[in-house]
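User: Is it possible to get a 3D structure for a protein together with its bound compound? The compound here is nicotinamide-adenine-dinucleotide. I've pasted both below.
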Amino acid sequence: MTTRARIVITEFMDERAVAQLAAMHDVLYDPLLVDDAPRLIKEAASADVLIVRNRTQVRNDLLSALGQCRVVGRLGVGLDNIDVSGCEAKGIQVIPATGANALSVAEYVIASTMLLLRGAYTATQAVASGQWPRAALSNGRETAGKTLGIIGFGSIGQTVARMAHGLGMKVIAFDAMLTADAAVFRQTGIAFSSLDTLISQADVVTLHVPLVETTRGLFNAARIAAMKKGAVLINTSRGHIVDLQAVATALRSGHLGGAAIDVFDTEPLPADVSLQNCPNLLLSPHISGVTFEANERVSFMIADKVLESLN
Ligand SMILES: NC(=O)c1ccc[n+]([C@@H]2O[C@H](COP(=O)([O-])OP(=O)(O)OC[C@H]3O[C@@H](n4cnc5c(N)ncnc54)[C@H](O)[C@@H]3O)[C@@H](O)[C@H]2O)c1
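Assistant: Yes, that's possible. Here is the predicted structure of the complex:
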C-alpha cells in the first residue's frame, strides 16, 4: 500500500483530475497560490509533489524551498519556467504533459492562418452599421497552395503540418535537432528546409520551438525583414523568441501581411500603444494550448503520471 503524499497544485487544473489525486493523497489545490509568493514558499516546503502550469517559476527561492519534493508535474509543455537541471540536482523528477495540448495549439495556428490570409473578418461593425466595404475586402488570399514554414518540428509542429497538408498547403519545416534525412520527414511527407530558405519562401511562418538560448531573439527585425512581402507570422511558442516591436513596425509598413501572437516577453502584456490598432494583428492571452478538451487531457495525463511516480 502506498503512503499518502502531500500534493500542492499552484495553478488551475481540471477538478476531476484533482479529485483523482485527492482520492489517494493529501492535496492542496489553490489556483491562486502562484500569485502569493510567501504562502507558495511555505506550502512548497512540505510538498512531496508540486503541480504547476506555466506561471509558477520553479527556480531560486521556490526550488530551495522544496525540501522533500520528489516530482514536479507541469500542466503543459515548455519547461522554461522550471530550472530542470536544478531539479535534477535535488533528485526531483520533472514531468511535462507532452503532446496533450498539441491539437489545440495546431487548431489555433490553422484558424489564424486562414483568418489572416483572407483578411475578411473585421467588417462586422462596418456591415452592421450600413457600410458595405466589399471592394476593400475582395483581395483576400486562399490558404490552399500557399507555403507554410514550420520552425520546430516536434509534437505541435507535426500536428500543424498534418492539418495544413489537408488544406492543400505546401509545407516545409526546419528543426535545429533534425537533418533532412530524419525519418520524421519521410513518414510525414514534409520537406526539410534550411532556416533561411524557409523564411524567404514561406507565405506563413509558424514557430513551435522551446525558449532556450538558441531560440531567444530568433525572430528579430532582420529575420522579419527576410520574410516574403505580405507573409504572415504566428507565434504560439514563447515570448522572447519574436521581437514584437519589429512585428508591429513590419505590419504598419505592409511588409508583413498579418501576425498572430499568443505569447509575450512579459505576461500579462503591459498596455502598449504601438500594438493598438496595428493592422492585421491578432493578440491572445497565452491560450492557444488551453481549451476545455486540452485542459482535461493535460490534467489527467499529469494526474496519471504523478500517481504512477508515487507508486
Ligand atoms: N501558447 C501555448 O499555449 C503553448 C502550448 C503548448 C506549447 N507551447 C510552446 O510550444 C513549444 C513547442 O511545443 P512541442 O510540444 O511541439 O515541443 P516539442 O519538444 O515536441 O518540439 C519542439 C521542437 O523544437 C525543436 N527545436 C529546439 N530548438 C530549436 C531551434 N533552435 N530551432 C529549431 N527547432 C528547434 C526541437 O528539436 C523539437 O523538435 C513548447 O516548448 C512551448 O514553449 C505553447
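Residues 292-310 form the longest helix (19 residues). The domain at 6-98+292-310 is CATH 3.40.50.720 (Rossmann fold).
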